[in-house]
Amino acid sequence: MVRALAIASSLSALLGLSACGPSDPPPLGQIIGGTPVAADSTICSTTPTSDPLPSFFPPALRLPAGAVVTKSSERDRIATVSGSAPGSLDEVRASFKASIDAAALPIQSEDNEGFEAEYNFGTLDLQGLVRVTQERCLPGRTAFALSLQNRR
């Protein structure tokens, strides 16, 4: 349990770095399943990244419908994916919960403060944390950051 909390804490720190805010660099661009587009200079843009999803991203773990990934990276068996999805915080949170359940990844803890929600989930081989936040810079959209640690 202590090890799981340490991993969750590490993943949470990583997610804090990928949250949408005024100090973040502008995102690049590609809509999931779409065509690459030019870089965008707007912070919290809906212009997607051309970077692929991490190689060990579970196929059964689906992003919410209409999600736009603005950042995707993989390094040292840790992957981060961030972006936004249409809908309220509760709608996007529920979509992630259904996806985590469908991927058979047990939820170990959850937190919902009304303006931000988190799920800590995983197995012995894959640990994950998703944070969903309602951002003022994205009217009608909810920001998300997903971090995965491949423990194989």
Query: Order of helices and strands, N to C?
Result: HEEHEEEE
Strand tally: 6
User: What structural class results from the helix and strand content?
Assistant: alpha+beta
Mean pLDDT: 74
Summed up, the helix count is: 2
Proportion of helical residues: 10-25%
Apparent shape: globular
Low-confidence stretches: 1-43
Structural commentary:
- With 152 residues, this protein is of the alpha+beta class.
- The protein has one domain (2-150).
- It is 20% helix and 32% strand.
- The protein has 2 helices and 6 strands.
- A 6-stranded antiparallel β-sheet has the order 1-2-6-5-4-3, sandwiched between helices.
- β1 (68-75) and β2 (78-86) form a beta hairpin.
- The two termini are 18 Å apart.
Give the helices and strands, then pairings.
Layout: H1 2-18, E1 68-75, E2 78-86, H2 89-102, E3 107-112, E4 116-122, E5 126-133, E6 141-150
Antiparallel strand pairs: 1-2, 2-6, 3-4, 4-5, 5-6
